[in-house]
């Protein structure tokens, strides 16, 4: 049996009524626009006239209470719960909800909607308790059962406000009041909270709605976000996800990406670099379809809400929590359009290969994000003529050689996006991903002597191996072949894109393979 | 309208500068963050220090990569060995 929360409400004459008050109580939650509440009112009135001097019998009205009383000329006290706080605290989801409590305020019985049987049982109990006979009610004029209506306290928008304002609200973030005459969008620009585009104001109601997308504790700290190493809670992720325009069902993806972002291996600190890298997020597994991500036409472009806002939310987290603001600690010389966000799903169904997350040790049915630290803008590689896997892989390799600098070899991780038409060409010859990687390494292998800077070009960048070779080199060292990538494993491959078009694309990465390691993180399953 | 603060809510920490010494003495550490051509600049600095302040010792240190903060061990080593530090920062 449940001990019910205490409350104090005023009736329509302004008298304060407090619960509990050493009497048994019958609480009838109703709203004026509910027909089943109207059906119940004469019964409630009859029960009040019979037992109202022995027990508390209160109608708890959610709206238009005066109208309700006038219509029935009710004498039963109607308590004003138009703020809906008591309805919310009592977890009333359907009206009418009838609750009978003993003198200590412990719930004895509760039902929703109209049930003749429940009313008769209750009246029998009250007769026994008080010694007063049952009131005369013509039950033959009433249905045995009639469903109720939704409580006003659980309507969209209202439920979130009540949750945010409740004493046990899950929200802890500082509340900022925006003046009535201030434009909230301009205010958020002025406060430096946006990425240069308007953001959705993160009202408590919207953040509560966003938090419905996860089962995790809003105050759980998922990590610390570089470069300021600020603690990141689920609540703060939700606030920034609202601003980015996410739906609640995207929140687990944003959260998993943030967890990867905060990892030591990913080294988000390097995002301050003049090089201008971005977190590039790849999503795998069933969640792609569940949240409606675009894997096809224009996959790396605009137009899909999930693709666009998940990546943007992660960037807003970096800005607002990590402190990554351009011109301040973020020093990108050029940056890229993907600094607004970069998040793409793999088109697993269109690929003959194991998807990225399976290659990285996850189950195919897991939903997973993988974060790369790369140039945000993909470099497209055209090949409309190759009819063999070998020829196409050669083209892709040559196209990839220009990353960082064409003469800089032994570089780190890149993400290669193979289009459906190109993957068909590769698979016609039964080439695996490793075959493709091997051919890219083979065709890009150059003698070290060709990679050293000359009077006509530079290009060493910061590659320690090449710098070392440039000093005191031997003929043997100069003739040694050096492929573009430090290891074939640095070439990460996914399939995505529209049905037509012989283009693939590469997201280039740091010349220095030690800077950042791609990190995968499993996404919370909420359904 | 009421909104929730999307930031970390930390009041910026005001840090005071270390006391300024009267002159340069003891050991000057040069920290090369491993950025291209940073070593060229620091070696010039080293040469000028040797010419102008021959009584001052100069030590050269190097980070593994510019993209990560210096390792704790390196920071502790420099703290123990140096009275001054000059860093070749960024581009």
Q: Which helices and strands occur, and which strands form pairs?
A:
The complex is a heterodimer of chains A (527) and B (91).
Chain A: E1 7-10, E2 16-19, E3 25-30, H1 35-51, E4 56-61, H2 65-72, E5 78-80, H3 85-89, E6 94-95, E7 97-101, E8 107-112, E9 114-115, H4 116-130, E10 145-146, E11 149-150, H5 158-165, E12 175-177, H6 184-190, H7 204-211, E13 221-225, E14 230-233, H8 234-244, H9 251-261, E15 277-284, H10 287-290, H11 305-320, E16 343-345, H12 356-359, E17 368-375, E18 379-382, H13 389-400, E19 414-418, H14 420-428, H15 433-444, E20 446-447, H16 448-451, H17 464-470, H18 475-479, E21 481-482, E22 491-495, E23 503-507, E24 519-522
Parallel strand pairs in A: 3-4, 4-5, 15-16, 19-22
Antiparallel strand pairs in A: 1-2, 3-7, 6-11, 7-8, 9-10, 13-14, 15-17, 17-24, 18-23, 19-23, 20-21
Chain B: E1 2-4, E2 27-32, H1 38-52, E3 57-62, H2 72-81, E4 84-88
Parallel strand pairs in B: 2-3, 2-4
Explain what you see.
Chain A is an alpha+beta fold and 527 residues long. Helix content of chain A is 31%, strand content 19%. Chain A contains 18 helices and 24 strands. In chain A, helix 5 crosses helix 7 (204-211), helix 8 crosses helix 9 (251-261) and helix 9 packs across helix 11 (305-320). Chain A is elongated, with a radius of gyration of 33 Å. Chain B has a domain at 32-88. In chain B, 27% of the residues lie in helices and 22% in strands. A 3-stranded parallel beta sheet of chain B has the order 3-2-4, with helices on both faces. In chain B, strand 2 (27-32), helix 1 and strand 3 (57-62) form a beta-alpha-beta unit. The model of chain B has no long low-confidence stretch (mean pLDDT 87).
């Amino acid at each position: 049996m449940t001990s019910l929360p205490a409350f104090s409400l005023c009736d329509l004459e302004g008298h304060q009524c407090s619960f509990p008050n050493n009497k048994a109580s019958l609480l009838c939650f109703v709203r004026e626009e509910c027909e089943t509440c109207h059906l119940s009112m004469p019964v409630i009135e009859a029960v009040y006239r019979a037992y109202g001097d022995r027990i508390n019998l209160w109608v708890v009205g959610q709206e238009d209470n005066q109208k309700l009383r006038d219509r029935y000329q009710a004498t039963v006290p109607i308590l004003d719960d138009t703020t809906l706080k008591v309805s919310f605290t009592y977890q009333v989801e359907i009206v009418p909800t009838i609750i009978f409590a003993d003198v200590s305020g412990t719930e004895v019985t509760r039902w929703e909607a109209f049930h003749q049987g429940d009313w008769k049982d209750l009246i029998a109990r009250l007769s026994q308790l008080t010694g007063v006979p049952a009131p005369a009610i013509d039950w033959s004029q009433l249905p045995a059962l009639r469903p109720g209506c939704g409580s006003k306290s659980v309507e969209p928008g209202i439920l979130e406000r009540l949750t945010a304002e409740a004493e046990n609200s899950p929200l802890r973030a500082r509340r900022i009041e925006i003046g009535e005459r201030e434009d909230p969008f301009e205010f958020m620009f002025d406060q430096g909270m946006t990425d240069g585009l308007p953001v959705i104001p993160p009202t408590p109601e919207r953040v509560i709605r966003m938090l419905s997308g996860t089962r995790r504790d809003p105050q759980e700290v998922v990590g610390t976000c570089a470069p300021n190493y600020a603690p990141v809670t689920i609540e703060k992720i939700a606030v920034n996800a609202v601003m980015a325009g996410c739906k609640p069902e995207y929140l687990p993806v944003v959260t998993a990406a943030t967890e990867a972002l905060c990892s030591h291996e990913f080294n988000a600190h390097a995002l301050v670099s003049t090089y201008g890298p971005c977190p590039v997020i790849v999503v795998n597994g069933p969640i792609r379809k569940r949240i409606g991500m675009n894997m096809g036409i224009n996959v790396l472009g605009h137009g899909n809400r999930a693709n666009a806002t998940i990546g943007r939310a992660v960037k807003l987290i970096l800005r607002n929590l990590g402190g990554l603001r351009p011109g301040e600690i973020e020093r990108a010389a050029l940056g890229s359009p993907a600094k607004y966000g970069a998040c793409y799903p793999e088109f697993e169904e269109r690929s003959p290969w194991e998807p990225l997350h399976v290659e990285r040790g996850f189950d195919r049915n897991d939903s997973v994000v993988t974060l790369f630290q790369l140039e945000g803008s993909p470099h497209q590689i055209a090949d409309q003529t190759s009819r063999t896997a070998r020829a196409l892989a050669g083209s892709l390799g040559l196209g990839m050689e220009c990353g960082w600098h064409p003469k800089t070899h032994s570089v780190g991780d890149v993400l290669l996006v193979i289009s459906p038409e190109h993957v068909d060409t590769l698979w016609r010859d039964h080439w695996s991903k490793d075959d493709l990687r091997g051919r890219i390494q083979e065709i890009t292998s150059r003698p070290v002597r060709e990679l050293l800077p000359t009077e006509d070009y530079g290009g060493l960048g910061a590659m320690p191996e090449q710098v070392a070779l440039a000093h005191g080199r031997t003929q043997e060292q100069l003739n040694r072949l050096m492929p573009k990538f430090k290891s074939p494993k640095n070439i990460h491959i996914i399939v995505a894109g529209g049905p037509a078009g012989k283009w693939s694309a590469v997201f280039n990465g740091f010349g220095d393979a030690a800077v950042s390691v791609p990190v995968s993180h499993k996404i919370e399953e909420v359904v | 309208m009421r909104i929730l603060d999307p930031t970390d809510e930390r009041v910026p920490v005001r840090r005071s500068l270390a006391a300024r010494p009267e002159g340069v003495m003891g050991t000057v550490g040069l920290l090369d963050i491993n950025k291209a051509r940073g070593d060229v600049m620091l070696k010039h600095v080293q040469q000028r220090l040797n010419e102008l302040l021959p009584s001052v010792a100069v030590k050269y240190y190097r980070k593994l990569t510019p993209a990560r903060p210096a390792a704790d061990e390196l920071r502790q080593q420099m703290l123990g060995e140096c009275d001054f530090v000059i860093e070749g920062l960024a581009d």
